[in-house]
Amino acid sequence: MASSSSNTYNSPCAACKFLRRKCMPGCIFAPYFPPEEPHKFANVHKIFGASNVTKLLNELLPHQREDAVNSLAYEAEARVRDPVYGCVGAISYLQRQVHRLQKELDAANADLVHYGLSNSTPSNVVDLVFQPQPLPPQQPQPLNPVYRLQGASPVMNQQPRGTGGSCGTFLPWNNGHDQQGGNM
Predict the structure, then answer these.
(1) Residue 32: predicted pLDDT
(2) What is the mean pLDDT of residues 81-103?
(3) Are 93 and 169 spatial neighbours (Cβ–Cβ below 8 Å)?
(4) Considering Cα of 153, then 93, then 32, then 55, what sign does the dihedral take?
(5) Which residues contact 45 (CB under 8 A, 6 or more apart)?
(6) Residue with the larger pLDDT of the pair 9 and 15
(7) What is the rounded average pLDDT for all residues in the chain?
(8) Most confident of the ranges 4-13, 23-32, 131-140, 175-184
(9) Could you give the CA distance from residue 133 to residue 120 in angstroms, rounded to a whole number?
(10) Which residues form the LOB domain (predicted)?
(11) Which pTM value belongs to this model?
(12) Spatial CB neighbours of 35, under 8 Å, sequence gap ≥ 6
């Protein structure tokens, strides 16, 4: 989100404040890292580095920069919370949830068809049987494979953090609480 008051009050942007340098009028960071959000730049700097972010923003067209900064900030936040999987862990969790819900929906539809066939007149049977059915869902490819090694210790066989194991799952929208309601 671009800040409309980049240097209106002579306050340096969060990037320049973090890097302890003077925020110049043409600062490439100022529209995207307002002084009110210092954690946003701190995370991006920690994961990607200020120099790399500067290079990236300079290579992009001005209308693409805001989306790029938002993506960098999201990935950086996810990497800070889960250094191994980052946002891929959240994506994988959501894909598994969609797959599970699709199976539940298919089972419910099968029950409805079965119930409809057992309690229908012969004229309804044709309507129920020949209704267009959705295509079967494709099996999602696991993004976080857990490798099982022969002779590995029990610690090696545990599911990694953030992949829906018994430890709970961190997702950006659950504010650091696991599925059982406790803090992670």
Answers:
(1) 93
(2) 92
(3) yes
(4) positive
(5) 15, 18, 19, 53
(6) 15
(7) 75
(8) 23-32
(9) 19
(10) 11-112
(11) 0.52
(12) 11, 12, 13, 14, 17
Q: How far apart are CA 115 and CA 71, in angstroms?
A: 47
How is residue 72 written in tokens? 């960098």
Contact assessment for residue 127 and residue 82, using Cβ atoms and an 8 Å cutoff:
no
Residue 27 is classified by DSSP as: -
| Other residues' Cβ atoms within 10 Å of the Cβ of residue 147 | 7
pLDDT at residue 151 in the model: 46
Residues 6+ apart with CB under 8 A from 60: 68
The residues, ordered by sequence, that sit 6+ positions from 13 with a Cβ below 8 Å of its Cβ are 3, 6, 7, 23, 27, 29, 30, 33, 34, 35, 41
The whole-number pLDDT of residue 53 equals 95
In the three-class reduction of DSSP (H, G, I as helix; E, B as strand; rest coil), residue 183 is classed as strand
- For residue 138, what is the enclosing H or E element? none
In sequence order, the 6+-apart residues with CB closer than 8 A to the CB of 156 are 148, 149
| pLDDT score recorded for residue 71 | 94
